[in-house]
Automatic annotation (TrEMBL):
<dbReference type="InterPro" id="IPR005471">
    <property type="entry name" value="Tscrpt_reg_IclR_N"/>
</dbReference>
<keyword id="KW-0238">DNA-binding</keyword>
<keyword id="KW-0804">Transcription</keyword>
<dbReference type="InterPro" id="IPR029016">
    <property type="entry name" value="GAF-like_dom_sf"/>
</dbReference>
<feature type="domain" description="HTH iclR-type">
    <location>
        <begin position="1"/>
        <end position="53"/>
    </location>
</feature>
<dbReference type="Pfam" id="PF01614">
    <property type="entry name" value="IclR_C"/>
</dbReference>
<dbReference type="InterPro" id="IPR036390">
    <property type="entry name" value="WH_DNA-bd_sf"/>
</dbReference>
<dbReference type="InterPro" id="IPR036388">
    <property type="entry name" value="WH-like_DNA-bd_sf"/>
</dbReference>
<feature type="domain" description="IclR-ED">
    <location>
        <begin position="54"/>
        <end position="223"/>
    </location>
</feature>
<dbReference type="Pfam" id="PF09339">
    <property type="entry name" value="HTH_IclR"/>
</dbReference>
<keyword id="KW-0805">Transcription regulation</keyword>
<dbReference type="GO" id="GO:0003700">
    <property type="term" value="F:DNA-binding transcription factor activity"/>
</dbReference>
<dbReference type="InterPro" id="IPR050707">
    <property type="entry name" value="HTH_MetabolicPath_Reg"/>
</dbReference>
<dbReference type="GO" id="GO:0003677">
    <property type="term" value="F:DNA binding"/>
</dbReference>
<protein>
    <submittedName>
        <fullName>IclR family transcriptional regulator</fullName>
    </submittedName>
</protein>
<dbReference type="InterPro" id="IPR014757">
    <property type="entry name" value="Tscrpt_reg_IclR_C"/>
</dbReference>
<dbReference type="GO" id="GO:0045892">
    <property type="term" value="P:negative regulation of DNA-templated transcription"/>
</dbReference>
Length: 228
């Protein structure tokens, strides 16, 4: 741990590691090399020790778990409030993945099983996950998309998106962004159901509830960061 702590402030040569940690030179070397084998430590172009890629992977995993722990009860409340299925989506490469869901108990359901990958070219969650990306990424994604740049501008302005029969015929949805620490959009919360219930203006019915749910999750993530 003292080797990792020492590297937190930046790259260090073996001599610097010895100096910072107070460990004997052979011990510091042995530990750094063992950590390197596990990808917890890596070397930069000058051969100095730096923090390794495994730490980033672990940090993503803890963020994912924390997001799910916070989001699950909020999705249940959102489902009870809107009487529609609620989902949480994260972007993964060129797809969006449903990472959590609260299903409607009965009646016509728009079931999106947890773990399913959906395209980024249709649906209100795709609009939300795309709207705050950089312009190059947006341009690429808009080729063959069921929505336009103007749609995304509107999504950014009002902080929610709606879609009617975009991804699947007869299904409508409303989504809002979840911001992680640093304000970056890391996920989208959605409600979806048949057009007969959600109408052709689903945002009018459910935008407020979906925005409130997204803000509750974002706030809890930020508070957790603050306390951490």
């Amino acid at each position: 741990m003292s080797v990792l702590d020492a590297l937190e402030s930046g790259p260090a040569s073996l001599a610097q590691l010895v100096q910072i940690t107070g460990l004997a030179r052979p011990t510091a070397h042995r530990l750094a090399v063992a950590l390197e084998r596990h990808r917890m430590v890596a070397r930069d172009s000058q051969g100095r020790f730096v923090l390794g890629p495994r730490l980033g992977e672990l940090s993503v995993a803890t963020g994912e778990d924390r997001l799910l722990a916070i989001a699950n009860p909020v999705l249940l409340q959102l489902r009870d409030l809107t009487q529609e299925s609620a989902q949480l989506y994260r972007r993964q490469g060129d797809a969006r993945v449903c990472v959590a869901a609260a299903e409607r108990a009965s009646g016509l359901r728009d079931t999106v099983p947890v773990g399913s990958e959906l395209p980024m070219n249709a649906g209100s969650a795709a609009q939300v996950l795309l709207a705050w990306e950089d312009s190059d990424r947006i341009r690429r994604a808009l080729r063959g998309a069921h929505f336009t740049a103007a749609t995304l501008t509107q999504v950014r302005r009002r902080r929610w998106a709606q879609s009617v029969g975009e991804r699947e015929q007869g299904v409508a949805s409303v989504s809002a962004p979840i911001a992680g620490p640093g304000g970056r959009v890391i996920a989208a919360v959605s409600v979806s159901g048949p057009i007969e219930r959600l109408t052709r203006s689903p945002g009018r019915l459910h935008a407020q509830a979906v925005i409130a749910a997204a803000e509750r999750i974002s706030e809890a993530l930020h508070n957790h960061e603050g306390n951490g």
